[in-house]
Amino acid sequence: MSFIVERLTIIGVGLIGGSFARALRQAGVVKTIIGVDRDISNLKQAQSLGIVDEISENPCEGVRDADVVFISVPVCSIPAVVQQIAASLGPGCIVTDGGSVKAGIVSCCERLIPEGRHFVGGHPIAGTEYSGAAASFATLYKNKRCILTPTTDTDPTALALISHLWQSTGADVCSMDAQRHDRIFAEISHLPHMVAYSLVHAVGTADAEGEDILSYSAGGFRDFTRIASSDPAMWRDIAIMNHTALLASIDGFSSSLAVLRASIEQGDGEGLVDFFTKAKCFRDGIK
Ligand SMILES: NC(=O)C1=CN([C@@H]2O[C@H](COP(=O)(O)OP(=O)(O)OC[C@H]3O[C@@H](n4cnc5c(N)ncnc54)[C@H](O)[C@@H]3O)[C@@H](O)[C@H]2O)C=CC1
Ligand SMILES: O=C(O)C(=O)Cc1ccc(O)cc1
């Protein structure tokens, strides 16, 4: 077996960190995996499930002698974790992350990483509405995209190693500018989560007569709103950190909804068919 990495530390052994560990272990490319998490019961469960070999509640202790550190905690906590561990990173150590927002994280973390250590921003485009180590699984990243967001300061060897690790999980790796990443994912991921949360919120609170409206939900409502079961703290952080791009996406969505509302108000059947046909074409074109 040829290891690419001797010691990998995962800070935040939840769905994303736990799945990264499981996939790399299955691929046989990492020798020892150390898990760090502030939730000790989650951490012990990760160890008993064989996701990590060693555990620590102390991030500075956990990263000692690590070759690679993967940070998979909610996005607003990522720079704080990097600040906490910075002085404990050994020479040549590569720090990377799996956060859903990139520009703020990359600029903060590049500033925080000491000389001779490296940072590479990343985001696997795969997940579920579940959280915690027990929800993780080895095939989460198989045939899914993973986006890396290098800058002109990124060390090419560090970038190549992180890319190789993600490829070992079965992911298709590509690189993109962090600002562009945040604009794209505001539209295709963050907006849909906001719409799903607000739809369920609206329908749930519209039940003034106590008619238990939600109990009548059919497949369409359930399919469309699955992601509204996602972790609220994770989505609070994403909404706050990507607020500029997300507000622009919400405004675009509001305009689209206003066009639809006007067609309904005016009884404009042709306008409605045009609107639905255009949307159906976009949807049917997704591979
Ligand atoms: N859930 C999803 O579908 C996806 C999530 N992401 C990103 O991955 C990251 C992790 O998300 P999940 O794995 O879903 O969350 P999770 O809730 O399953 O796991 C996060 C873990 O981090 C721990 N944690 C939180 N703050 C910490 C801190 N300051 N120090 C140490 N441990 C801490 C929690 O106890 C938890 O075990 C987030 O940044 C999220 O934006 C990226 C792609 C998909
Ligand atoms: O559950 C789903 O379908 C998701 O969309 C998961 C997801 C959540 C956040 C990301 O940054 C990427 C993927």
TrEMBL record:
InterPro entries reported for this sequence: 6-PGluconate_DH-like_C_sf, NAD(P)-bd_dom_sf, PDH_C, PDH_N, Preph/Arog_dehydrog, Prephen_DH
Domain (Prephenate/arogenate dehydrogenase) ranges: 6-287
Keywords per UniProt: Oxidoreductase
Protein name listed in UniProt: Prephenate dehydrogenase/arogenate dehydrogenase family protein
Domain of life of the organism encoding this protein: Bacteria
